[in-house]
Specification:
The structure holds two protein chains of two kinds.
Chain A lengths: L2 H38 L2 H6 L15 H32 L2 H16 L2 H17 L10 H11 L1 H13 L3 H9 L4 H12 L1 H17 L2 H6 L17 H10 L7 H31 L5
Helix pairs in contact in A: 1-13, 3-6, 3-7, 3-10, 4-7, 5-6, 7-10, 8-9, 10-13, 12-13
Chain B lengths: L2 H38 L5 H5 L12 H32 L4 H14 L3 H15 L6 H25 L3 H9 L4 H30 L2 H6 L19 H9 L4 H35 L3
Helix pairs in contact in B: 1-11, 3-6, 3-8, 3-10, 4-6, 5-6, 6-8, 7-8, 8-11, 10-11
The chains are: A mainly alpha, B mainly alpha.
């Protein structure tokens, strides 16, 4: 092989290995920021404490309020996105005429391309006032409105991934169901959805991971008050919002307060990493093979 | 009522419910767009596009914000595309099915799932602090480049996969080397698909605010950046800042800036979709 060929291959290899450096970099940055933090604050206190006030005079370092805020907005988002997204996926696959399907899909995809600050603006200025018409004691910043809007934002994620999974089920299964006299609904829920279940579960897990890491929407609409509660009507704070809040303020570099964002980031990373790998594992293990 | 009519009614009911669910999504999208247009459209004029930010809402403009966004787009393209496309080419054309290759693949899939704000922490520590770039355009663009890298790699690989083996075999048969085959045959054939993915990744980068906030992009930048080492703001951060203010006039400004941001996003996505459709029609292997 000529030398120039070798050099080119080497450069391409270098580009590919940069992705490994990125992963190492992320883990290194999170750990090197967190380890000094955990030398001052005990891990037990960090993961069991129910007060998070690093920016106040009386400092408490319990991450649970941020975790609760993240869990709350994520749960509301999935409660909206899962039924809507899955129904749309089934409808498009089993019921919709081909022309409707080919026009609706790209329109729904638009929901996924809109920047999340825009959703935050809409949640804060339109959805919250609208909901306050029904729920008078809903605060101006709250998990409910942010969660609902986030749910609609991630509909395309669940609907298109689930639809891909349902489409991948071989035609013969559907035809067999019809041949037995099933209606479209029975075919969908008794044959297609069970056959595509691993793909659907993967889509939901990825949607959860996306919701957990979502930042600007919740930073704008859900508030910046860490609170250990599952009440969707009051202002809360998510892990991501906290990192934004500290980044916007002027916390001195190297201080304990500054290090909290790396500890919070580490928790966030662990959650999303676990969810993503769970989805890969399910995909690999339970993918039904039809020949 | 017999069992079969009951089943038919259920079937119809689900059909109606399916249409209803789609309508929720569509109505929400329409409400969002109409609301933002009606709030912000009247605010957009030449002054708004060419003014610096100001403490007074009525005097504020988005000049620095869209100039920053443009800078970020160009720099991110310059960094992420060569890197991502090279990595994609290596993984698709050069590696054999080794353990290393599958490890790289899993690693890239994992990176694609890392929340954008974590990339912000990475950029803050590595680019801003360790490499001493400060909260500059370059640091922001490098952070976003790492963020979109998995998208570029994955779409590059998919486009390369779509090029049939016969193209490669034909080229090898004529005595071309591996790189000549890749550079002169495979990459041109996959160009449309790669371009689509690349534009999609730009549309993702243009809407990102969280990592740039962490890297230290400012909400108030009183000058237009003139080099990659300057401090900067971008449209999404300007929108975030205006949305966080209590005064209603700033919300109008935010809506107007959102219209500009959506214009850029939709334009990029429109080009990508157009290219993809053209590609699908043109090429029949």
């Amino acid at each position: 092989m000529k030398l120039s060929e070798k050099i080119i291959e080497g450069l391409l290899w270098l580009a590919a290995t940069i992705t490994i450096l990125v992963t190492i970099g992320i883990i290194w940055v999170l750990l090197s920021g967190s380890i000094p933090f955990f030398q001052k604050v005990s891990i037990i206190e960090f993961i069991t404490g129910t007060e998070w006030t690093p920016l106040f005079a009386k400092k408490e370092f319990g991450i649970l309020p941020l975790v609760a805020g993240t869990f709350l907005t994520t749960a509301i988002a999935i409660a909206v996105a899962l039924p809507l997204g899955l129904t749309i996926a089934i409808y498009l696959n089993e019921y919709a005429p081909a022309r409707l399907k080919s026009t609706i899909k790209p329109v729904l995809e638009v929901l996924a391309t809109i920047p999340t600050v825009v959703y935050g603006f809409f949640a804060l200025t339109v959805v919250t006032p609208f909901l306050q018409g029904f729920i008078p004691n809903l605060a101006g910043f709250n998990a409910l409105s942010a969660g609902i809007v986030m749910g609609i934002m991630i509909i395309p994620m669940i609907s298109s991934l689930s639809e891909d999974a349902i489409s991948a089920v071989p035609k013969s299964l559907r035809e067999a169901a019809y041949g037995m006299g099933s209606t479209r609904l029975q075919t969908a829920f008794k044959v297609m959805v069970p056959a595509a279940s691993s793909g659907i579960i993967v889509s939901v897990i990825l949607a959860i991971s996306r919701a957990v890491g979502e930042t600007m929407l919740v930073a704008i609409a859900a508030g910046q008050q860490p609170r250990f509660t599952l009440n969707p009507l009051v202002p809360i704070e998510t892990i991501t919002t906290y990192i934004v809040q500290v980044s916007l303020g002027d916390v001195p570099h190297g201080s304990l307060e500054y290090r909290t964002i790396f500890a919070a980031g580490l928790v966030l990373f662990v959650f999303t990493f676990a969810l993503n790998n769970l989805s890969f594992w399910i995909k690999k293990k339970y993918q039904e093979k039809y020949d | 009522m017999t069992n079969s009519t009951r089943n038919r009614i259920k079937d119809k009911a689900f059909q109606v419910f399916g249409i209803f669910c789609m309508l929720i999504g569509l109505v929400f999208l329409a409400a969002l767009l109409i609301n933002i247009l009606s709030e912000g459209l009247a605010r957009i004029d030449w002054d708004f596009l060419t003014s610096l930010p100001s403490r007074r809402a009525s005097r504020s403009g988005i000049l620095t914000a869209w100039a920053g966004t443009l800078w970020i787009l160009v720099l991110t393209s310059l960094i992420a595309f060569p890197l991502g496309i090279s990595a994609g080419v290596y993984l698709e054309e050069y590696t054999k099915k080794t353990k290393m290759a599958s490890f790289l693949e899993i690693n890239i899939a994992n990176l694609a799932g890392v929340p954008s704000i974590i990339y912000g922490l990475l950029g803050l520590e590595i680019f801003v602090r360790q490499m001493g770039m400060g909260s500059s355009l370059l640091a922001g663009a490098m952070t976003l480049s790492l963020l979109v890298l998995p998208i570029v790699i994955v779409t590059t690989r998919e486009s390369l996969k779509a090029v049939p083996q016969t193209v490669r075999q034909g080229s090898f048969a004529l005595g071309a080397t591996k790189w000549q085959t890749t550079w002169l045959q495979v990459l041109p054939a996959a160009f449309g698909g790669i371009l689509t993915g690349v534009i999609m990744s730009l549309s993702r980068a243009v809407g990102e605010a969280a990592p740039l906030v962490v890297v230290g992009a400012l909400a108030y930048v009183p000058f237009v950046p003139s080099s990659p080492n300057d401090e900067f703001t971008v449209l999404p951060i300007q929108i975030f800042n205006w949305t966080s203010r209590p005064q209603a006039e700033f919300l109008v400004n935010a809506a107007a800036a959102i219209i500009m941001l959506l214009l850029i996003t939709f334009l990029l996505n429109g080009i990508a979709v157009y290219l993809r459709n053209k590609q699908q029609k043109k090429i029949k292997w």
